[in-house]
Fold each of these.
Amino acid sequence: MAVGGFTKLPNGNVVVALKLPHPGGAEDSVRVIVHAQNRQRALTRLRNLGFRAARLSGNTEPPTPDEVTAVLHHPDGLVWRHSASGSEELWHPFRATHRRAG
């Protein structure tokens, strides 16, 4: 079960933040922020990208205002960074990660 939460925006959309295991199998984890029409669509987007364990139970770690701003200003509506790095690391677009790997 992933730790995370969500924030409902005034227009009805949501921003979901989840702490998930690193897709490369490393010991660390990543913080993924997704903008979608509802929570279920946000989780479906993550599952389609390979995060099969993406489940949201509760609202223990909702996205911060900085995380909401980062994902709303990104054209894909999906950004990530290592969760251990804190605020030193910039947000990465998920599309660029797949381009480098493939």
Note: The chain has a mean pLDDT of 81.
Amino acid sequence: MYYRITGLLLMGALWLAACKKDLGNYDYHAPSEPLVADLNNSTVDAIVGDSLIIRPYVYLEDGDPAKDLSFEWEILVAEEARADHYTGYPLKIVYNLKPMERAAKLTVTDIRNGMKYFYKFKINGGTRFSKGAVVLSNDKGVTRLSFIRPDSTVNADLYHALHNEDLPNNPVQLFAKPLAYQEGSVEDYWVICKDPAKPSVIIDGSTMLRKRYFNEQFFNPPSPLETQAFNGAQGVPTGIINGKLYLSITSTAPFAPDFGKFSSMQIGNYYLAPFYNRYNFFFGFDTIRHGFVTFDNNGNFMGSDYQVVGNAFNPANLGPGQLLFMNPVPSVSYAFYKSTDGNVYEYTFTVDMSNYDLRTIKPTRKRVFAGSALLRPDTRWQRTAVDVFYFTSDDKIYRYNPLNEELKPLDANFGGKKVTMLQLNADGTQLTAGVEGSILTLDVSVGKNGVITNRVDGIPGEPVGIVIRK
């Protein structure tokens, strides 16, 4: 027994010695772990439409991060049950997700040994589009949508930057759809274009991301679908499409998916010019009858079934021609109409809009418009609350006072560029004009004659429409 125990002890000692000798022959180093500073469990702020750049400090003790590490970024889009993936360092994208807090993850892979390291963080997406101006422009037939920030910097062609595609061609109107029953608010932007190959687009007013295409605004979209004008009076959109009046559905709750969608056209033998208004009933101009027509508050076509008081002209039939501009209001209304006799006539009338049962038109005057020679096929018009008109003529803007027929060019000098857009602010003290490449602000307050007070350059193409949000 003694010899057996001694032998076992000797063998154990030899085994331990061998192990000790074997360990001494290895030069072992654990792989260095990359250091990614200030990212794990952090929150990164992002602004929709702006560049998002995440560039954390990365250190690798025994290697070169640029050569030995790869980077994969993952941003969770939970509402669509997907994730956006990007590779490379740093992360540099135009942030185009709806404003909310999102889970994100950076995966760093050590190329030398395949080891992966995970860093979880959050992205808090916001928007800067609640203040500033959205500009629709025509860049040689290509539609551009840009955003002017409060500091006058421009996100040019923002839609393409966010969606990597162009809008439909030939823009005609930028309509700010209000929140339900909140006239003056902005829920969506409708980018209305005349492009037979591609539908117009509806854009979220908070994110500037596409919500849907315009044909999805209908339960059963008409074909063809040619849009002429839209109105947000009373906080609910209505429109003229293919010359017909369309009303939106308001019988559901405002948050319901169908609320605000267009149903079928209001039937009748008429084709409306793109100038109309809504009060207790709809008032427009029928190009078939060459006269003013009405619809009841439910949109039923009533034609020229109204009372006429006065004989200055026949409001039901102005004769063959083209309506150039009309802005029907509860007080005195004006219409400028180009007749086939070659003259442009100025019509003045009042419409009793207080009660549907009292639909009465009172024609008060017809005369040749003093500024007829200055009008162009693409003339833009604006009217103040005190019945002063502004209109464009090539590279100039004119002020017209119908009380004394005074015509006066504004002081603004546009350097020979045609004025392609004109908009008056609510109190009538400021005009916003558009020329190729620029948006300009003109002072037309009392005692001022349209001196330029601000200029923003960098707009791609010729401005067509603008929505200013303060």
Note: Confidence is low (pLDDT under 50) at residues 1-23.
Amino acid sequence: MTEATFAVLALLVLVWAVTSDLLARLNITGPLVFTVAGYALGNPDSSPLSVDVEAPSVHLIAELTLALLLFSDAARVNVSRLKRDVRLPGRLLAFGLPVSVVLGSLMAAWLFDDFSWALAGFVGATLAPTDAALSVQVINDRRIPLRLRRALNVESGLNDGIVTPVVTFTLAVAAGQLGIESHDGAADDSGGALLELAVGLIVGLAIGTASAWLLSIGSRRHWMSTGARRLGTLAAALGSFALALALSGNGFIAAFVAGIAFRAALDQDAVDADTAVELPELLGEVLALAAWFLFGATLVPIALHNFDLTLLASAVLSLTVVRMAPVALSLLGTGLDRRTVVFMGWFGPRGLASVVFALLAVEQLGNIPVVERAVAAVALTVFLSVVLHGVTAGPFGRRYVHLEQAEEDLSAGPRSRRPAQNSPQPPTPFRTDQP
């Protein structure tokens, strides 16, 4: 990525910051703006900027973004609050997510005859995690019941970390099936993938617990200056990711586990976790805008070059049946009405985690035709999700609130107007505004 590309990105972030609320009122999201800008300014066919999908800087930005968001999402989960209503997110993560992975894998194997089972599994796992940032208007709409918004937010925050081992495993197996060699000259295998996961788990636990312990001690003894808690938390997020990579482990698992361990081990009386995690979260959000720009410049052209009816059918099924059917099954017995189930099923947008996993496939498997086809299926699904979920978040949220309030008024109205039997009617009060 050149200096000119970096300068354009910085200026775009500035313009977005100035106009973000105005564009939100028009149902235009940041991911949509930066994806379109990336394609317009950075696509390889007709653009003034040069962005290469295989460039190390592109992969580094995308991977750092996901690591920071994994850490901050995990560290934001307040277990004590979640315990009050763990039923909905628990069902979505424990049942809906695995079913979505399996259903998406079967769909990919059915539509694409040349996909191996590992490559089909990669597509299914890559498109299973959701991204609440693409429907932030729904998450922030206080008129929508808190338990629904919390369920969607917690699901989005944790499902990408949960599905990362599956993505890593399927990529390793796909590399072996395709005869692709790793950097050390040996073909990748599932054993190596499991070892990476184990190293990432250990590193995440160690860094997350140790960093929380050190920050708690420093804060209690007044060793820390203003803002140092945020810097320490950022260092823990980046350090867990980098150390896991240095030890040939999985950096994403390390960052995710470090966030969970950090929140669990932190002394809440000494350090406020929500405040401490602000800096990694903010940096992750800025890098996410850059990642969406790179998505538009590198992966959207691949999707358009491979576009056909099969690819379109794959994207549409991923956003509807593959998402909504598992959600409906996981919510059986919860007492939620059909409107609410459909609402929660629709707002499962595919986002940044899927983009990073697609870039990992390019990095580890190369640009051979069958891999490019799989990447195109992921990229087209994410692009449609950016457009459809971004545009519908505001209107569908308002429509859901309106229908729920109308139904409540309809059911409560007659009872409130009907006088109780054998009870005297109160006199009609004199109103001065009557003619």
Note: Confidence is low (pLDDT under 50) at residues 182-188, 416-435.
